[in-house]
Amino acid sequence: MKPRHAIWVAGVAAAIALPFVHREPYHLHILVLILIWSFAYTSWSIMGRFGLVSLGHGGFMGVGAYVTALLWNHLGISPWIGIPLSMAAAGVLAAVVGYPCFRFRITGHYFVLVTLALSGIVLQVITATRDYTGGSLGYTPDRTTGSHLLALQFDSKTTWYLIALFIWLSGLLIWRWIDRSMSRYAMEAISEDEDAAAAAGVNVTAEKLKITMISALMTAFAGALYAQYQMFISPDTVSGISVSLQMVFAAIVGGLYVSLGPTVGAVITILLAEGLRIGFGTAAVGWDNLVYGVLLVLFIIFLPKGILGSVIDRLKTQRKPALRS
User: Structure pTM?
Assistant: First the structure.
């Protein structure tokens, strides 16, 4: 076994054993949030790393969370069915928005504006249909009186931690699969020059739409999982421009081109939000978005590869002279 693989195996084994050794509920709660949001940030970075900057992922996450909860509360449809349906709804939304953009070469700032509009529309729909969604007051999935497994509702933090850990690892595997596929090379060629990529035989529209669909499905799944864990959702926490900007910030700060970069970003965002909540209480509502914006500008200017990406580059630079000597 290669040393790198051995490190991964040891790390995963330690992560699985953690909740059986350290059972502090609050700490496990923070870890669950970090893992769920890491998966969401990874889904955004799958698009972002190829130059497809989207501000619509707050919309996909909102669809995943609300569709799952609404199907459970109003129709009694189990989340095991509701989550795939919510992912399908997000996939259709991604196709409706993405296909015309990619077909008619809407790129750059214009694509960002289209996705920004998508995020705002989903937020407004959730808020306007308050009779069903609770509007700005939020929405709570009904507690089950039967099987907790069927309803995907668990009181144990350990159970949720293990679920979130598995989902997080799945996100890394999806990243690795894309990174080693031909789609990566196709998307890199497209991000450099669409016309040249098309001349070389790349189906530009299909490749872009495929990456966008994968990213949207993953984001919707993260939203549904978050709703099932928190058992309370609101438009501001799972949809809208603030959630989209949070994803952009975390992915760029952690390292957009590194698989574990979004995880580093999740650690920073969750700890920052908790620190402000504990330190300032309700007086700090909204401060995290302000801090995200300021730090995002600073990182884009001074540390464009993010924290983890810059560390890896530094280690590679230091390793080269050692190998030459």
Answer: 0.94
